[in-house]
Specification:
Number of domains: 3
Radius of gyration: 24 Å
Strand content: 35-45%
Low-confidence stretches: 59-69
CATH class of the largest domain: Alpha Beta
Order of helices and strands: EHHHEEHEHEHEHEEEEEEEEEEEEEEEE
């Protein structure tokens, strides 16, 4: 069964939580006690309908204010697909949460209130999906019932988003427009008979039929998480390297380079517990042995010969800032790139990126909470990296504030 990771985004009160609650309800994914709690709470509030947002807003503050504050992960399955949905906040002050939720997602649903059309937050969420190279973006035009299911209103919003897409730098994104009413279930799980002018699929049908392009991360990266040396007589000469395969595949007999030492060897075996495999595919956590007794340590990386990444000590990246203390030139942070740690110093803050696609502010003095900018760093030791566009796993990193140990920012390597 396919597993699909989805992030939701949209402005405040666009109906993200209601949409997810409707999907859970119509796919019969809500437990009896959860459904009963929603029914009772809806009656207490005087509603003559079920408030499906109660299915996802778990914090007391969320339920009291009727908004989403934290990222909630919702799991459910249909006969064809298992879904993991990251329900992210809509407020501008929670932009960092939206980045977190979308960073591991294969698809994104951006909601737009049909009455209000495209807003500043819509620009911001669309920009972040471009920045994170989310391949499938669904623009769900919600609350169509409040605009009399108007095709004209739907097409107006569609045209505005299409204009944004023309200005974006990521051209491999597939954008799909679906008119919905989360409250009444129109085009959410089942096709609606109230919009005869719409000939496409329901939202759930579309998500179930998504096919993804796997070419972006084709070059294999195998960061070594642990060196395995059993303390037994039988395996006293055994030396294995445990990790996870990112991008492409590894196969017994492949010639590999060990970074940063640049030594070469051949894959002797691929193992998982007591079983041996000929091939390790992308996403596999395995143990690898090599033909030669070379020096490999935790934090090193195995790559195929001829597919080596950049080895750098000067780093240029697009950074989304997540800390209350602003990022400024000459500040020092810890960087975590994969399983590697190092110290970095900000050498230049070249631009602040306007998330409405209107351009950049050159040479800003700082990068404040939730702002996105282009930043240069000096690294204390060599890192082996790819651009985020070439390999997402090896092209991203986080910055840690050394004074508080808080995650201060997330970066995407150019």
């Amino acid at each position: 069964m396919n597993v699909l990771k989805i992030a939701t985004a949209g402005s405040v009160d666009d109906g993200k939580s209601t949409l997810i609650g409707r999907i859970l309800y119509d796919t019969k994914s809500l437990t009896e006690d959860k459904l009963q709690a929603i029914e009772e709470k809806s009656k207490q509030r005087g509603f003559d309908y079920l408030d499906f947002s109660l299915a996802t807003d778990g914090l007391v503050a969320e339920r009291e204010q009727g908004i989403t504050i934290d990222v909630a992960h919702i799991y459910f399955s249909t006969k064809k697909t298992s879904f993991i949905i990251a329900d992210t906040p809509g407020h501008i002050e929670y932009t960092r949460n939206m980045v977190t939720g979308a960073s591991n997602s294969q698809a994104s649903i951006v909601l737009v209130d049909a009455r209000n059309g495209v807003l500043e937050q819509t620009y911001r969420h669309f920009f972040i999906n471009n920045l994170l190279r989310v391949e499938e973006v669904v623009i769900a035009v919600n609350k169509m019932d409040l605009v009399d299911y108007s095709e004209e209103k739907f097409n107006q919003i569609k045209g505005e988003i299409a204009y944004l897409a023309e200005k974006s730098g990521y051209k491999n994104q597939n954008i799909t427009f679906i008119p919905v009413s989360a409250l009444h279930g129109d085009n959410v799980v089942n096709r609606s008979n109230k919009m005869d002018w719409y000939k496409g699929e329901s939202l759930l049908d579309y998500l179930e039929n998504i096919e993804f392009n796997k070419q972006e991360d084709s070059r294999v990266r195998f960061p070594v998480q642990s060196v395995i040396r059993p303390k037994t007589e039988k395996y006293h000469d055994y030396r294995g390297y445990a990790g996870k395969v990112y991008g492409g595949t590894l196969e017994v007999g492949d010639a590999v380079t060990v970074l940063p030492s640049d030594t070469k060897s051949i894959i002797k075996s691929i193992q998982f517990f007591d079983k041996e495999y000929q091939v390790a595919k992308q996403g596999s956590s395995v143990n690898i042995t090599l033909e030669d007794d070379v020096n490999v340590s935790r934090g090193d990386m195995l790559v195929k010969v001829g597919e080596e990444p950049q080895v750098i000590k000067q780093l240029e990246a697009t950074v989304c800032w997540m800390d209350k203390s602003p990022l400024q030139a000459s500040e020092k942070y810890y960087i975590k790139h994969g399983i590697n740690d190092a110290q970095v110093k900000v050498t230049n803050l070249s631009s602040l990126i306007r998330t409405d696609f209107s351009g950049k502010e050159q040479n800003p003095s700082k990068l404040s909470l939730n702002e996105i900018g282009e930043v240069s760093f000096k690294v204390s030791k060599p890192l082996f990296v790819d651009s985020y566009q070439e390999n997402k796993a090896n092209g991203a990193f986080i910055l840690i504030n050394p004074k508080t140990n808080n995650t201060a920012g997330v970066g995407f390597i150019k």
